[in-house]
Protein: Matrix metallopeptidase 1
Organism: Chelydra serpentina
Amino acid sequence: MNRNDPKLCSCFCQNYLQHFYNLETDKQSRFKNKNIKTVTEKLKEMQAFFGLKVTGKPDVDTLEVMKKPRCGVPDVGQYVLTDGNPKWERKNLTYRIVNYTPDMNQADVEKAIQKAFKVWSDVSPLTFKRIYDGNADIMMSFETGDHRDNSPFDGPNGLLAHAFQPGNGIGGDVHFDEEEYWTKGSNGYNLFFVAAHELGHSLGLSHSTDPGALMYPTYSYIEPNEFHLSQDDINGIQTKCTANNRNNIQKVAQVL
């Protein structure tokens, strides 16, 4: 994106705010000046979320954050399937790997996914069992472009993956953008980190404003041996669990 092109910059910002901050489109807004005001308000909301200087203008720092590869789940207003604060009604969940990326061998994909589930099972009473056919609670697949869930991917970089909150049907499912380059290391996008983040959404968590949290919206790579689930993430998943189990889940996850 050329920052010197005001029209292109404005279009980019509006698209970002529409997707992640519930900005109304011109068609949704009755008055054009009302929409302009809303853009400013939504920019301020986005800047506050990311800890930027709140100017209401698409300054350099704001555009840099907007351009970072990230999760496709909105920062404001999740992929809502049901009212309230949804969570799984049971603790023993199933998952299925529907297909594989050609970027990695199948064993490495399976190891990354298993490790991602362990991040959350280590700090909660949840258990995850893999099944190989039929419908699982959490269906995990690699998709491209418009894949019939009203949340199309945008090609390389940009939106890396998305997941849906707990519920029936598509609820809990995780989709990875196949047009990304998926790896088990630091080149491309690390499947383990992205999967662990998306599973947080599958379990009912929203994005975090803590840059050190796994549930922070933008992607960054950390050496797997140095990865620790943040206290913010732990608090989030434990809040989702019933009070009766809280005494049993005061563990801190460390991926070895």
Notes: The helical segments are 6-21, 32-49, 60-66, 106-121, 191-202, 231-240. Residues 78-82, 243-256 have pLDDT under 50 and may be disordered.
